[in-house]
Structure formats: structure tokens, C-alpha cells
Design the sequence.
């Protein structure tokens, strides 16, 4: 009973001819690894005949001015997020992370990162102001008659512009400011839903649940401060009065959520959330000749790959030496993306590269192990191709992402703090390479992930086009968006019912006391 | 930008050849209109090569012993649900309903029906006992090596048998004992989710929210009483110890929910809930010759149809006369399913029938109006074909179902209490026939309902087969199933944190008091 995976790609082909005209989409992306994902979606939208206009800063790091598949609206901002600063902070984080994990992750998600977060959102707000103060931009925006806004929910530009233009909004992402997006829209019992950064699973001890609820409160306050101090003034200035930013940020028609329940723990969701986790994954293409030759030379032992994330590609020298020495002891070949000083301990079996075709390597039958830092993209690709993982998490959600694989028996997490002690690194690699259960579990996850009635990318395209066909998806938006917290949680009703019960009890008590006294008096009189 | 509707039917055709063998499914259905739906699903499963064994009572009303597409396991029960009794209760309900609505609906859903409900579940429990006490049945069950149980969640037989046989469980339904199934599995804020029977929408006033929370509590208690008194003893007797019925009833792998958010109000849901509302709907087939002739004779005015529900096809004489008289005044032709005494006021334009091909009529372009009692099947068919409705709700969820159409501007609800007063009936029909907004709104709902990436029936088949391929869908089941209510709601953590805060406050207070006293003493000494 096996499902052919071709059917959902075929579905999209079937859909294509019926579109009489393409839609006109305004794209409000985010920088960094988020853009990499958005870009893949934009290429797919372009190939379906839609017109795309991407809003970018003239100082953008990743988003190119000229593209064959989208137009740009470049905003001449003065400030920009300082890429160098962020890279340095990331490097420091790695050093610091060598102390402890996941406490570090916890601290960074909540306190250490607050400063960067506030700066980050302040810069983004200046971006929105610059746009909406510029008559030429306003004219372009209005004249373009966009059908919808497609935005990354990790900052407030998308919802503000969608409200400003009064067009439907589709989100593509997994984070809303500092929290996992589900916490903003779906009921999230913190008794079994771990807050990102805690390093907990969906089965928590009592003390873990205490920590989880406390971190939830901290994240909630952090989000609220950023909403009120940074974004609310922009709403007050450019939108009709009484637009609460916290309300408009959750008022999207469709949430394309870059996760699924093969990867994440099952939890309550909402009708307008569409799971597109792994939408960027695709079958491997043939490798470049020199890589294929290197991979084939590994013989029956196969290959270990170690790419690194968007920001960190250099490690401290001593750590790089330890890693290279461990690699040298393996019978496998190793492909290592590393830009730092060439480690002195590097073995003949290790190929150091500037860049590697990660997806094509993961889909190659010779690849036996993936050394991952735990970014969402890499973890999703590991699931898609069913390759076991040794994880070296550094910051943000990386530990939590890898934990989801480890819990399912497909990965082993190493702490940066102890990676260079007692041959931990080598032992972990050898364990995952020799124990077949790691690969079997990743293959099982891969089968589950691939067994969907519609492929994630096709779901994304369908719902974006649905929103354009029907001018929104109001019928999928629950009334909870429009409610104050005390109405939503029935606080007023519970108080009313408690008061009513107390009143009945009190009245009964008074009545009985009066009756009792009257009886006593009568008795006294008689006596 | 219009979607071709053929694609999802094509999808299933694409899936078919890849199944190397069919699955072996044990079906635990429910009687009445629920069976009509289940039967449609069984035919589709049979056509995809699966073997079906339907468990039925030898006294079953609807489920036939001999079928070309399923085997039966007939259980020789002594008691049976008395169809005549139920029919009589239904008739009384109609009489009673002529008093008020939706209060009647409320009363019946909560108090009036409790007796019937308890009897109903007690009879069903005897059914399970008879099965599990019969060595021949047990032998058959074990030897059949079923891949899964497909059950209606409105009674406890399905989950108990699935647990007994230790096989995956898929539900097909919308009710769990006395409540809408979502309330059993998904967080359900009663501040905007109306309890069935209240006749409220998802936008409630303060007093409506008070009533809603009270009805929620009553329903909750009613369900809990039936679970503990009727089903728990069966679990204790036939299953391993410590199986709590309330837990096992929510422990299904997949919930095929017979609703969607074109019909119902959007609300929180869970990853293993699959919406298949309207899965039984299909394009109209040509009408029988005599009906087509009658329909065509209506000319430009078109036709009004009035089928009735599974139980009620007779109305009180006076009411039937009023209805017939109103029909006689219409320029339209009328097709009326009615088994009672021929009303004296019947006009020439009205054709009384014993049965009508409801779906084929609703899909006929000449049909202008659907007089519906508000059963889920009829309402879904009205949405599918986009036909406006005048609703005459009687009991259960009928008022609430029709309210969802009325709220979207596609229907007008008449109270049975006032239907025969002041030409209300005639006026309602004329209003819905002449005001084009009713048809426009139903057509809009129809477009939304049909615009899905996968057709509801195909979704149902996909997820049933998914459960057989992967021996369950554990990765979609949230941990909430395994948690006690006080852990789930973090009651222990909140109490702990409150105690901690109080302790800190108290200690600080004591410390400050001691310090203050010590200072005072020293001062006194000095003086």
C-alpha cells in the first residue's frame, strides 16, 4: 500500500492551464535564511504566471535588486541591520555556548537577544516609515493594485502594509517577533507545548512545566513590549485610528507554516494554518563531477557531510582542530564547509569546501551522516532524505529543532561545551554511523513526511491562489482575533457566575439567620 | 483564476494502481442517518479493493445482512433500540416544538433527551458485551487480523473494540456521545464556540456567553455520567486494567469530521482531524422520466422541494394542511415528500412523493428553493449545489445547522411554533425566492466548498489508507490525551507559583517586621 509521490506534482500541472491570468503579489520578506526559503516560493509563484514585487532595503544583504522573476521596490533607508555586528554576536555566542546548553539557548532567547531584537525591529520600523512617507512609493503601491501581500510574519511590515492597502495577507514563516507563530494564534496549553529555547519535549516533568510557563510569560512580555513600543506608533501614524498592532499582526488570511507534525510535536492548530514544512525540499540533482568523484571514492564506508549555517562558517581554531582530528580517524570520507584557517590536523579523507550543494548531497545514496547545526532548513532536508544526524546546536531554535529528531531516534545532539572533550565528537559520529536504528528512524520520518495527499509546495501555491480567487479567506478566521483577552478567556462570565453563586449563598445565609433569630425571639418571648 | 474540479477525482485514480493489496477493515457503525453516510464511504473503500466487515445487531433497522461490498458480523442481541419509540418521541417533539424554539432544542439536547440517551448507550453496551462474551465472535475477530477499526464516534463500541484488538482507530462522524466531537479533543473556548443546542453564533452577547458556559457544563456532566456509568464497566471487564473510557474514546488515530469551515464556524482544531464535510455530495444524475417531466413543466418559475428527515415524514394534520395551502398559492411547482394523510388543501402544482432523489434534484438547474429540516446531510448538499434554503428545524442540531446558513445569508429559518400563523410559511418562501441575495450567498458558499486542493471523499480515503500503511498516525496525536485535567490546565504549576510568590511575600514581610522591631528596641534602649 504505497503512494506514488508524483501525484501531487501532477496536481499542480493539472491546475496550471485553468488560470486565465496571474495575480499581482506584493512581497514583504525578511533577511537571512528566511529569504532563502521565500525566494524558492517566489520562483514557484513566478512559474505559475504571477507578478511579484519585492520590497527591499537598498542596503539589503541577500535580496538582489535585479531578478528575472520579481520586480523590486527598493527603499532608501539610512539605518540597516549591521551584518558584521550580528556575525560577531553569533561568534561570541559560539564561544559562550561552550559553557552550557540548553541554558545558553534559554538565556539568549530571552535576555541576551532582547537588545538585538529591539534594534532589529526599530530598524525595520524605520523602513516602513521611509516607505509610507515617500509619495512616489505610495503612488506605486496604490497604482499597482496588488491582489494580496505575501509576508514573513517575523516582523511587522507585512500586516501593516496589508492593512494600509486593504488587501488580503498571507504569511510564510514560523516566527512572530520572538515567539513560535502558533502561540500568537492557536490555543497553546503550556503544559505540553514547550516554548522554544527551553529544550523541553512535549512530555515535561513538573519542574520543566514551571520553567516552561515562566519562559512563556517572559516571551509574551517581550513580544508585547516590542509591539507597543516599536510597532504601535507606526500603526497610529499611518493607519486608521484604533488599529491595535497585536490584533492586526494575527489578522492574516492564511498562515503558511514552515513546519509539520513529522518534525514538530502535535498541538492545537487553526483552520487557516497550512503546514508546508519541507516545501523547499526536492529530489537530489546529480553532483558536480569533482564532488561525485570524491563521494564515489568513499567506497562502502560512504560520506559524512558538515555544512554550517547562514551566519557561522568559522569556528575557534582549537575547536576546528579537534573536529578535523576526529574526522581524520574515520574510515568515511568527509565534506566540510569551512572558511577559517586550514586546521593542522586535517586528514586526507576530508575535503574542505566553501560551499556545498546540501540538498543534492543529502539525497545521494553514499551519504551516511549529516553533521547539522539545527537550522530549520537543514533539519527538514534531513527528514526529507532520511539521513541520520549528529547535531551541534548553537543558538535560537537549533537545539529544539535537533531535539525533535533526537526524540524520534534519528539524531544525537552534542553540546558545544563538551564537543572537544573525551573524544565526544568522534564517539557520537561512530555511534550514529554504526547503530542502524538512527538511519531506520530517519527513513521512517522521511516516509511519513512524503506521504501527504498534496505536496507542501503545492499546498502553498494552492492557498496563495485561493486567497486571490476569493479575495481573502475570511471563513477560516476564527472570531478570537476580535476579542479582548478577558472576553476570550470568559473572565467576565466566570466572575459573574461566581458573584451569582456567592449572592445566592449569602442571601440564603442571611435568610436562615433571620429566620433562626425570629424563631429564637419568639421562643424567648414565650418563655 | 478558476480551479478545475476534476483534479482531485483524478488524484484518486492516480493513487489506485499503486496499492499492492487492499486493507482489512472492521467497521463499527451507528444506526439511522449516520449509517447512510458511513455506507457511502464503505462503497468507496470497497471500490479501492479493501475488505470490509460490518458489525451489526441482528435487530438492525438500516444495516443489511447481505451486501455485495461488505461482510457482516451479526450479533444476536436481545434488546434493541425501539425504533417505534424513537419515532413517537420525534413526533411528540414536533408537537412540543410548536411551543418555542430554540429553547426546545436546548431543553431536548440537555434534559429531555438524557433518558433516551442513557437507554440508547445501555443497549449499545449490551451489544458490546454480547460480542465479547461469544467465543465464536472472539475467534472470528482475532483470526480476521484486521488492519484497523473504522467507527462512528457517537457511541463507545468502536474505541473499545479497537483497544481490545489493539489496532488503529479511525472515526467517521461529528458527535461524541452528547457533544460535538471537537469539544472532546480540541481546546474549545466557550467564549466564541457555541455549544450545539444553544442556537448561538460565534459572536455572542454577554448573557449568551453565560448560557453557553452553563450548557457546556451540563453537556460535560452528561457525557461524563454516561462514560462512567455505562461504558467504564465494559472497559473494566474486557480490557486491561486502568483503561479510562474517557481517555480511550479520544484516542483515535484520525478523526474524519463530517463538517468544514464553509459550513461551521472556524475554531481551534487538532492535527489528526480531517474535514470531510460534504464528502457524500456528488454531481446530480439525470432524474427519473416522470420527475424530469414534472420539473420541466414548471417553466421559468422553477421548482421548490421539501424532503423530510430520516425519522419525521408525517406532520400533524392541521400543519400539513397549512403547508399544502401555502404551496398551492405559489407559481412554482412543488415536490413534497410526505407519507401522512393527503392534505385537503393540496394544490395542482404540488406532487406528493414517498421518496425523492434529493441530491439529483438539488443539482437540477430548475430547483429554486430547498425546504430543509436542517439535518447535516441536507445542509451539506444545499451548500454543495448552492441552493437557497427555508429551514424548518425540529430537534438535535437542526436549528444550529440552519443558523450557519442563515448567518451567511443563504437561508431563512422558520419556527415550527409560528409556521402556521400569519402566512409566515408562504412569506418566507416568497422572500427567499424573490430576493436574489439568498441564491448568490449559497452559490458563494458552494464555490468556497468546492475549492479545495483535495476533495473531501478523497481526503477520507487517503487518511484511512495512511493509517493502514503506517499502522496508525501516532505522530499526529497530541500528548493532551495522556494528561489529567489538572496537569493539562497547569493547575498544579499555577498553585505552586502562587504559593512561591506568597511565601516570598510572607518571608519578606516577616523579615522587615523583625528588622523594624529590632531597630525600635535598640532605639528604646538608647533612650
Sequence:
Amino acid at each position: 500500500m504505497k503512494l506514488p509521490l508524483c501525484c501531487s506534482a501532477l496536481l499542480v500541472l493539472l491546475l496550471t492551464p485553468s488560470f486565465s491570468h496571474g495575480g499581482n503579489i506584493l512581497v514583504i520578506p525578511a533577511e537571512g535564511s528566511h529569504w532563502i526559503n521565500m525566494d524558492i516560493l517566489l520562483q514557484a509563484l513566478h512559474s505559475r504566471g504571477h507578478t511579484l514585487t519585492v520590497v527591499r532595503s537598498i542596503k539589503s544583504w541577500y535580496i538582489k535588486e535585479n531578478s528575472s522573476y520579481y520586480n523590486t521596490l527598493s527603499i532608501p533607508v539610512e539605518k540597516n541591520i549591521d551584518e558584521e555586528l550580528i556575525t560577531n554576536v553569533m561568534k561570541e555566542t559560539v564561544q559562550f555556548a561552550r559553557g552550557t546548553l540548553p541554558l545558553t539557548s534559554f538565556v539568549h532567547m530571552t535576555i541576551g537577544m532582547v537588545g538585538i531584537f529591539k534594534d532589529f525591529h526599530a530598524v525595520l520600523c524605520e523602513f516602513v516609515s521611509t516607505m509610507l512617507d515617500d509619495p512616489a512609493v505610495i503612488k506605486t503601491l496604490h497604482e499597482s493594485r496588488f491582489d494580496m501581500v505575501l509576508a514573513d510574519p517575523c516582523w511587522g511590515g507585512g500586516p501593516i502594509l496589508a492593512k494600509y492597502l486593504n488587501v488580503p495577507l498571507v504569511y510564510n514563516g514560523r516566527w512572530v517577533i520572538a515567539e513560535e507563530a502558533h502561540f500568537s494564534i492557536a490555543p497553546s496549553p503550556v503544559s505540553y507545548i514547550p516554548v522554544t529555547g527551553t529544550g523541553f519535549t512535549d512530555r515535561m516533568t513538573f519542574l520543566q512545566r514551571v520553567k516552561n510557563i515562566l519562559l512563556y510569560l517572559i516571551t509574551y512580555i517581550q513580544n508585547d513590549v516590542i509591539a507597543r513600543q516599536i510597532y504601535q506608533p507606526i500603526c497610529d501614524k499611518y493607519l486608521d485610528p484604533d488599529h491595535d498592532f497585536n490584533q492586526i499582526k494575527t489578522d492574516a488570511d492564511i498562515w503558511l507554516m514552515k513546519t509539520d507534525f513529522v518534525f514538530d510535536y502535535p498541538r492545537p492548530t487553526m483552520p487557516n494554518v497550512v503546514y508546508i514544512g519541507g516545501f523547499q525540499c526536492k529530489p537530489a540533482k546529480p553532483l558536480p563531477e569533482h564532488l561525485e568523484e570524491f563521494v564515489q571514492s568513499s567506497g562502502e564506508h560512504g560520506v559524512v557531510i558538515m555544512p554550517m549555517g547562514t551566519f557561522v562558517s568559522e569556528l575557534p581554531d582549537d575547536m576546528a582542530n579537534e573536529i578535523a582530528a576526529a574526522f581524520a580517524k574515520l574510515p568515511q570520507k568527509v565534506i566540510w564547509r569551512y572558511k577559517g584557517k586550514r586546521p593542522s590536523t586535517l586528514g586526507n579523507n576530508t575535503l574542505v569546501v566553501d560551499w556545498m550543494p546540501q540538498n543534492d548531497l543529502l539525497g545521494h545514496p553514499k551519504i551516511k551522516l549529516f553533521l547539522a547545526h539545527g537550522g530549520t532548513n537543514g533539519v527538514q532536508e534531513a527528514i526529507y532524505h532520511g539521513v541520520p544526524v549528529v547535531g551541534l546546536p548553537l543558538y535560537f531554535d537549533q537545539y529544539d529543532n535537533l531535539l525533535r529528531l533526537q526524540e524520534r531516534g534519528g539524531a544525537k545532539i552534542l553540546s558545544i561545551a563538551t564537543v572537544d572533550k573525551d573524544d565526544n565528537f568522534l564517539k557520537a559520529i561512530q555511534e550514529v554511523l554504526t547503530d542502524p536504528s538512527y538511519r531506520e528512524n530517519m527513513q521512517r520520518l522521511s516516509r511519513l513526511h512524503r506521504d501527504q495527499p498534496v505536496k507542501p509546495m503545492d499546498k502553498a501555491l494552492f492557498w496563495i491562489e485561493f486567497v486571490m480567487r476569493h479575495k481573502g479567506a475570511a471563513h477560516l478566521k476564527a472570531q478570537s482575533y476580535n476579542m479582548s483577552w478577558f472576553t476570550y478567556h470568559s473572565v467576565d462570565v466566570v466572575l459573574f457566575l461566581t458573584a451569582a453563586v456567592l449572592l445566592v449563598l449569602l442571601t440564603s445565609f442571611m435568610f436562615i439567620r433571620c429566620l433562626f433569630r425570629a424563631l429564637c425571639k419568639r421562643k424567648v418571648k414565650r418563655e
